[in-house]
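Quick one, tokens below:
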């Protein structure tokens, strides 16, 4: 399903990738995931337990079935629940802006932060966060900020069993840990889409998983 050939090198995306990676490498709080050919980093305790609890409450209050941009995926592809989070809310804005500041990306390039809830058995099968430019949705995405560059995800709780973020082609997985931020570049260093960023939210076995995800575009998403 995801073996489609990506588009080629792109100077703008190359510049964004290099700038953010350089910033994260220089941040002593950030740790490289040490994955060959994928720019991925994490920070433990990026947000505190009280903030995690507030965000979980917001997700529980506003959750709905998750949606998916794809011409091909079936109904069982993404079975979690999601919540679009108001970036100007006093409970959301500090986290939203802290992620942008960490990466050094203009907040206007950031999409609405999304909360996700995974109950036992729920999952998000292997997918790329970057947009496949041959699919029908690309025209609308191109007009609203263009390609996704970096993804930042914060785990809001520990999970009893399951729920890891798995990158099968890159050969690593990240188990949920409350407060931890994981960020990765969806592009290669030359600005072309990185096939190795294929990732999966594996099924929760025991417990409930809560995360928030922030995607950044190559151009401003907010007008």
């Amino acid at each position: 399903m995801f073996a489609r050939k990506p588009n080629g090198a792109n100077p703008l995306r190359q510049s964004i990738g290099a700038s953010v990676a350089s910033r994260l490498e220089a941040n002593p709080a950030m740790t490289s995931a040490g994955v060959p050919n994928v720019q991925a980093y994490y920070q433990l305790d990026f947000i505190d337990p009280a903030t995690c609890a507030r965000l979980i409450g917001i997700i529980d209050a506003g959750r709905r079935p998750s949606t998916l941009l794809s011409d091909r995926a079936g109904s069982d592809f993404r079975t979690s629940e999601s919540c679009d989070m108001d970036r100007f809310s006093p409970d959301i804005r500090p986290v939203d802006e802290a992620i942008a500041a960490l990466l050094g990306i203009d907040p206007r390039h950031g999409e609405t932060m999304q909360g996700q809830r995974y109950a036992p058995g729920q999952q998000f099968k292997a997918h790329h966060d970057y947009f496949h430019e041959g699919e029908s949705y690309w025209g609308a995405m191109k007009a609203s900020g263009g390609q996704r560059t970096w993804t930042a995800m914060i785990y809001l709780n520990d999970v009893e069993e399951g729920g890891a973020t798995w990158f099968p082609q890159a050969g690593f997985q990240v188990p949920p840990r409350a407060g931890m931020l994981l960020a990765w570049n969806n592009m290669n260093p030359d600005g072309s889409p990185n096939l190795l960023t294929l990732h999966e939210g594996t099924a929760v076995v025991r417990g409930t998983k809560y995360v928030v995800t922030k995607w950044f575009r190559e151009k401003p998403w907010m007008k």
